[in-house]
Design a protein that fits this description.
Strand content: 25-35%
Order of helices and strands: EHEHEHEHEHEEHEE
CATH topology of the largest domain: Rossmann fold
Number of helices: 6
Radius of gyration: 16 Å
Low-confidence stretches: none
Shape: globular
Largest sheet: 7 strands, mixed
CATH class of the largest domain: Alpha Beta
Number of strands: 9
Helix content: 25-40%
CATH superfamily of the largest domain: Formyl transferase, N-terminal domain
């Protein structure tokens, strides 16, 4: 069974959606560890309430290489097979990514490659797009640029605010993250250029 290491910075709603999917039998995996880079992250307490191993590993004031050198042994200690970023608000170093090649997933609240980085929902509204959504992708060494596993479209309404649009995108995030994990853990796949092709 695939052992997941979930990295969070905040409330961890995508982590909880993954945990719910596992509990309901929709996803054949186990959460080996939840690691938060902010000690106050509500997701850490949510993990503890579920009886999961939750580790606070503060990152404040640490540069990327130094922090990742602490993070890697923690994941390896728990024999993590697949790393899932669930609202983890730090960029990973090349060192980290090379230790988990094609074994790190991230979810982003836009239809990448549109609107990478922070405040994607605000970017979508400012740009006036009619459709946005969310993307689960493999993590590479550039920002929000790795090969795409799955996407979901969300129409933008005329009266949308950042909050209303974010809420509808988040509902789709909760759905497709489980599906992406299921795909990469149960189906053979290959990379054809930038495309992820499932067999």
């Amino acid at each position: 069974m695939t052992r997941l290491g979930i990295l969070i910075s905040g409330r961890g709603s995508n982590f909880e959606a993954i945990a719910d999917s596992i509990a309901a039998g929709r996803l054949d995996a186990e959460i080996a560890v939840v690691i938060g880079n902010r000690p106050e992250a509500p997701g850490l307490e949510a993990a503890r309430r579920r009886g999961l191993t939750a580790v606070s590993l503060p990152s404040k004031g640490l540069d990327r290489q130094i922090y990742d050198a602490q993070l890697l042994p923690e994941l390896k200690r728990h024999a993590v097979d697949l790393v899932c970023l669930a609202g983890f608000m730090r960029l990973l170093s090349g060192l980290f990514i090379r230790e988990f090649p094609n074994r790190i997933l991230n979810i982003h609240p836009s239809l990448l490659p549109a609107f990478p980085g922070l405040d994607a929902q605000h970017q979508a509204l400012e740009h006036g797009v009619k459709i946005t959504g969310c993307t689960v992708h493999f993590v590479d060494e550039a920002l929000d640029s790795g090969p795409i596993v799955i996407q979901a479209a969300v129409p933008v309404r005329e009266d949308d605010t950042v909050e209303s649009l974010s809420a509808r995108i988040l509902a789709e995030e909760h759905r497709i993250y489980t599906e992406a994990i299921r795909l990469v853990t149960t189906r053979a796949y290959a990379f054809e250029g930038r495309r992820v092709v499932f067999r």
